[in-house]
Amino acid sequence: MERNKQVRVCKIGSLCSVFFWLIFIVIVFLWQKQKREETMSNLFDKAIQIEKSIYIKRLINEQVHSFPTDNNIPKHEKDEWIDQYYLIRSDPKRERLDSIYSALLNENGIKTDVQILCTFDKTSTFTGAMNQIEKAVALPSVSFSINDDEEKNIVLSPYYTNNFLCEFLIHPYSYLSFFTCLFICLVFIWCVWKIKKTEKEFNQMVDIPVQKINLDESSIPLYNTGWIFHHADGMLKNEEGLIIHLTPLDTKYLAAFLKSEKHLLRYIDICRSIYNEPYEDESCVTRVDKQRIGQAINRLRKSLVTVLGIEIRSIRNGYELNVVPLNKE
Known about the structure:
Keywords: Membrane, Transmembrane, Transmembrane helix. By secondary structure, this protein is α+β, with helices and mostly antiparallel strands. Among the domains are: 2-111 and 162-169, no CATH class; 219-323, Winged helix-like DNA-binding domain superfamily/Winged helix DNA-binding domain (Arc Repressor Mutant, subunit A), CATH 1.10.10. Helices cover 49% and strands 16% of the residues. The longest helix has 54 residues, at 2-55. It is rod-shaped, with a radius of gyration of 42 Å. The two termini are 45 Å apart.
């Protein structure tokens, strides 16, 4: 029951990691998009001022027609409107402003296509193709008005191609956050696998009572490896006559594995059957016992290295003598 709870916790943890990563990506994306659009709007205002400083040459009053003459209009408002009126007359599509704006964006590391919609006197011009407006993203417009007269408003509206999502996804911190999330998920997956593996091994052990193994000196075939374990002589011998001599301790361990149920040995089984310790349960096994058993198992593994088809693997609270499938060419 406790292990099932741990598995659920790990699965929920993995899902939460993915969920919070997605939330993080969306929040960062929206914040970066807003920040970028604010920068682009500020640069558009700057482009308007640069255009004025380069191209404006004021006309004398008698050369200008339809200019407002109302003295109640603030001078700054009137001058701004006159400047834009002049620029529209000299460059109706505002291509110069488009060029200046594009250059400013490039200087600030913003790679995107921009177009400008200029509206005046019920007429609109666009620096790109008109069908591009539907696909482009509009930034805040800049309006020049005279005494709140909407008919004389000059409106400059910048548009840009929305490729920010692609640029955002290939940004280093997007990769970093993705791989961090992936790593966390892999850790949770590993934990689930480990818990299930431990539970499986625990169930295997539960099915087997504490064993007192009879280490008689009979000969036993070593699975289907072609080797026979001669307990009395402390050796392994195969059909070709090859012999592996075992130490007395190796002989005891191998006999215990072969004569145990499911070829599983718990620490307590080893302590009672091989070392004749009067232990009652697993709690009696000390760390020193486990270290001594581990060293003996490693020596036995080295002795069996030439015997193909078997392995001794560690399991929870013990070891298992296991058959390894051989690759047949």
